[in-house]
């Protein structure tokens, strides 16, 4: 684990490794080697450290307004123990979500974590990795002889905090030793060097979230640039990882045809030949709920993200919850345009789904 990240991130878009401004520890976390190691790291950087009985009891974060407190919370790290070892399902990406962290330092305007994390958007790292891996072993055994896939990025971007946690490499190497276990995760960060020598055995698919320049520029602050992500993808492919790209959210905007054509052309130029034959794509159109819209407009009051219910189709989801997606004609136009250009550049690629 790196002991000295590059620098503290500023208020605007930058791609340096994340360093929190405030670190909380649950007391039990300090009984684990990983918890002690992170504590030593925080002390070495002179970061403010506090002890909390539970992350649910964290109150009084600084900030003179709700928006300012939110921004500070996004730069706050909580180190704790994962008590719930029942994994959520993660369709269509995988059978299960494997929880090694929660929260993200990125400020993507559209992110579903805006609402799922609610008033607690801080970043949490779980130090009881052995317990989590043992639970995963049980899920694999239950489904044998079928292969079981685990998604590690449902509630966080684990690459963005790997220099602090080291958990992702542990998970990759664990799955590398599981004949029936497979790992998947997606990232918007390029800090992959510590993962390149992991003994993955081809059991981990490393995916990068990519998008048209317009979307990255306007809606993905505090994430790595497109060029950095693609450079990292090349490193990952040359390290033998199966590679994939998640184009999400696909946004309808003036000039979207050129934007997504340019995206696929750049990918075509950048992806190493050895990765092209087994490349996967996942396509997800932009969607939002009424709750998400209210939260996004409060936290990013100047956002250019279009969220006009009158221009959308209401789609019912699980448990009676609905969301606004593009009308069928627009959704089909997006799907067809992007699909054609994927296969033009990557004729042997697989599109896992469009949703």
Which keywords apply here?
pyruvate-formate lyase- activating enzyme; disordered N terminus; 355 residues; single chain; eight-stranded mixed beta sheet; alpha/beta; five-stranded mixed beta sheet
Descriptive account of the structure:
With 355 residues, the chain is of the alpha/beta class. It has a single domain (82-354), classed as Alpha-Beta Horseshoe (pyruvate-formate lyase- activating enzyme). It contains twelve helices and 15 strands. A hairpin with a 3-residue loop joins strand 4 and strand 5 (94-97). It is globular and about 55 Å long.
Describe the sheet with the most strands. 8 strands, mixed
SSE pattern, N- to C-terminal:
EHEHEEEEHEHEHHEEHHEHHEHEEHE
> What's the CATH topology name?
pyruvate-formate lyase- activating enzyme
Number of helices: 12
- What is the level 1 CATH name? Alpha Beta
CATH architecture: Alpha-Beta Horseshoe
Radius of gyration over C-alpha positions, nearest whole angstrom: 20 Å
Question: What fraction strand?
Answer: 15-25%
N-C termini distance: 37 Å
Provide the spatial order of strands within the biggest beta sheet. 4-5-8-9-10-11-12-15
How would you describe the shape? globular
Q: Care to count the β-strands?
A: 15
What is the number of independent domains?
A: 1
Helix content: 25-40%
**Low-confidence runs of at least 5 consecutive residues:** 1-14
Structural class: alpha/beta
**Overall pLDDT level:** 91
Summarize the structure.
The protein is of the alpha/beta class and 355 residues long. The protein has a single domain (82-354), classed as pyruvate-formate lyase- activating enzyme. The chain has helices at 33-44, 66-73, 113-116, 129-143, 162-165, 167-176, 213-219, 226-238, 256-270, 273-276, 290-299, 328-345; strands at 22-25, 49-51, 76-80, 89-90, 94-97, 101-102, 123-126, 148-151, 181-187, 204-210, 243-250, 280-285, 313-316, 322-325, 350-354.
């Amino acid at each position: 684990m790196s002991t000295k990240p590059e620098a503290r991130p500023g208020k605007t878009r930058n791609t340096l490794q994340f360093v929190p401004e405030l670190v909380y520890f649950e007391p039990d976390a300090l009984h684990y080697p990983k918890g002690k190691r992170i504590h030593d790291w925080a002390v070495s950087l002179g970061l403010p450290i506090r002890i909390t009985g539970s992350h649910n009891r964290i109150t009084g974060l600084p900030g003179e307004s709700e928006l300012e407190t939110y921004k500070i919370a996004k730069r706050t790290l909580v180190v704790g123990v994962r008590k719930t070892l029942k994994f959520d399902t993660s369709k269509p990406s995988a059978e299960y979500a494997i929880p090694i962290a929660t929260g993200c330092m990125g400020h993507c305007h559209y992110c579903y974590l805006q609402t799922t994390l609610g008033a607690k958007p801080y970043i949490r790292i779980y130090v009881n990795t052995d317990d989590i891996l043992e639970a995963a072993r049980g899920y694999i055994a239950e489904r044998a002889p079928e292969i079981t896939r685990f998604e590690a990025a449902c509630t966080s971007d684990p690459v963005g905090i790997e220099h602090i946690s080291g958990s992702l490499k542990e998970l990759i190497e664990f799955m590398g030793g599981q004949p029936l276990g497979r790992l998947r995760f997606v990232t918007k960060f390029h800090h992959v060097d510590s993962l390149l020598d992991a003994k993955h055995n081809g059991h981990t698919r490393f995916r990068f979230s990519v998008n048209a320049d317009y979307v990255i520029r306007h809606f993905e602050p505090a994430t790595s640039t497109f060029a950095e992500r693609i450079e990292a993808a090349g490193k990952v492919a040359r390290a033998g990882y199966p590679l994939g790209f998640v184009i999400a959210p696909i946004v309808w905007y003036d000039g979207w045809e050129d934007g997504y054509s340019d995206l696929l052309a750049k990918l075509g130029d950048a992806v190493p030949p050895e990765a092209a034959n087994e490349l996967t794509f996942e396509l997800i159109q932009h969607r939002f709920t009424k709750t998400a819209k209210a939260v996004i407009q409060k936290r990013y009051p100047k956002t250019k993200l279009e969220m006009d219910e009158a221009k959308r189709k209401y789609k019912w989801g699980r448990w009676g919850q609905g969301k606004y997606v593009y009308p069928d004609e627009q959704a089909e136009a997006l799907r067809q345009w992007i699909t054609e250009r994927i296969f033009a550049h990557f004729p042997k690629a697989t599109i896992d789904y469009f949703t």
